[in-house]
C-alpha cells in the first residue's frame, strides 16, 4: 500500500468496536504515532515500551503492533533504513483509517489541536523518521532524571506566525522541563536535501524574528536547534550561520544528529 493512499473508509460501528478493546498501552501507541506520523519498531520500544526490557520488550511490542495493524489502527510500511552498506529493512508504522479517526477524536475530547492525519510521501519518510528520532533520543536521555518532555509537536502544529503575515515552519517544537526551568526550542532536521542558500534563508527568518522582538510559544523566543546528517554538513552549516547577524550565535545551535538530544537537554542540567 502506497504511503500516499488515503485512509480506507470505515463505519462508526467499526471505530466503536475497536475503541472499546484498546488498552492503555494501545492508546499510548496510537497517540505517539499520531504525534510523530511515522515511527519504527525500535523507536516505539523507547517511546511506548521502555518499562520492558530484553526479549519481553520485543515480544510485547510485536504483539501490540500487529494486533493494531489487524484492527486497522496502524498501517505498516516496510522501508530500507540506513545506507547501502549498513541498512536493514525495519517495520515502520503510521496510522491507518481507524487509528486516524480515534486520534482525532481523542485530541478533540482533550481540547488539543489536531491535524488531518496522513502518511508522508515517499520522499519524506526518512525525514519524518529523523524527526521521530529526536523525540526518541530525548526520552532516552531524560529517563531516570527529573527532566521531561512537556510538549513535542511536529509540523504543521509546530508552525508559528512570523509577525509579517507569514509563518515560521520548523520541523518540530519542543518544550522541556527541569526542576526549575522550562526551555523552548524549534527544531530543524537537516538531511542535506536542501541547498545551503535555501537553508540560509530559512535560518535568517528565525534570526529576523528575534531581531524584531517577536515572541514564540511560552512568550519567549525559542532557540533553534539544527540537527545535521554528517560532519561535512555540520561544518558547512556552521560557516553559514557565522555569516548571519546577531543574535544568531545565541539563538542557533547546530549539532550532529546523534548529539541533538544532549544539546536540547543541556541547558536544563546547568
Count of all domains: 2
CATH structural fold name of the largest domain = Trna Endonuclease, Chain: A, domain 1
Please give the oligomerization state of what you see: single chain
Helix tally equals: 10
Classify the secondary structure makeup into a structural class: alpha+beta
Question: Whole-Å distance between the termini?
Answer: 48 Å
On the 0-100 scale, what is the average pLDDT? 88
Rg result: 19 Å
Q: Catalogue the unreliable spans.
A: 1-7, 83-88
Q: Mind summarizing the main beta sheet?
A: 5 strands, mixed
Shape category: globular
Which characteristics define this entry?
alpha+beta, Trna Endonuclease, Chain: A, domain 1, five-stranded mixed sheet, three-stranded antiparallel sheet, globular, disordered N terminus
Amino acid at each position: 500500500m502506497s504511503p500516499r493512499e488515503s485512509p480506507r473508509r470505515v463505519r462508526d460501528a467499526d471505530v466503536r468496536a475497536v475503541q472499546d478493546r484498546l488498552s492503555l498501552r494501545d492508546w499510548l501507541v496510537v497517540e505517539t504515532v499520531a504525534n510523530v506520523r511515522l515511527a519504527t519498531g525500535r523507536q516505539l520500544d523507547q517511546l511506548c515500551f521502555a518499562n520492558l526490557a530484553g526479549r519481553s520488550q520485543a515480544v510485547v511490542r510485536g504483539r501490540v503492533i500487529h494486533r493494531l495493524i489487524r484492527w486497522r489502527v496502524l498501517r505498516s510500511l516496510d522501508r530500507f533504513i540506513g545506507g547501502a552498506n549498513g541498512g536493514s529493512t525495519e517495520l515502520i508504522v503510521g496510522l491507518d483509517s481507524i487509528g486516524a479517526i480515534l486520534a482525532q477524536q481523542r485530541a478533540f475530547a482533550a481540547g488539543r489541536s489536531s491535524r488531518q492525519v496522513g502518511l508522508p510521501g515517499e520522499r519524506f519518510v526518512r525525514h519524518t523518521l529523523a524527526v521521530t528520532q529526536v523525540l526518541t533520543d530525548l526520552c532516552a536521555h531524560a529517563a531516570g532524571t527529573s527532566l521531561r518532555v512537556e510538549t513535542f509537536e511536529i509540523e504543521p502544529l509546530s508552525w508559528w506566525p512570523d509577525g509579517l503575515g507569514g509563518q515560521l515552519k520548523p520541523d518540530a517544537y519542543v518544550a522541556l522541563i527541569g526542576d526549575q526551568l522550562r526551555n523552548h526550542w524549534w527544531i530543524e532536521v537537516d538531511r542535506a536535501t536542501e541547498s545551503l542558500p535555501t537553508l540560509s534563508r530559512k535560518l535568517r527568518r528565525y534570526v529576523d524574528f528575534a531581531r524584531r522582538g517577536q515572541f514564540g510559544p511560552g512568550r519567549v523566543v525559542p532557540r533553534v536547534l539544527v540537527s545535521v546528517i554528517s560532519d561535512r554538513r555540520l561544518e558547512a552549516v556552521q560557516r553559514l550561520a557565522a555569516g548571519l547577524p546577531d543574535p544568531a550565535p545565541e539563538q542557533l545551535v547546530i549539532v550532529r544528529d546523534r548529539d541533538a538530544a544532549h544539546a536540547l537537554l543541556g541547558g536544563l542540567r546547568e
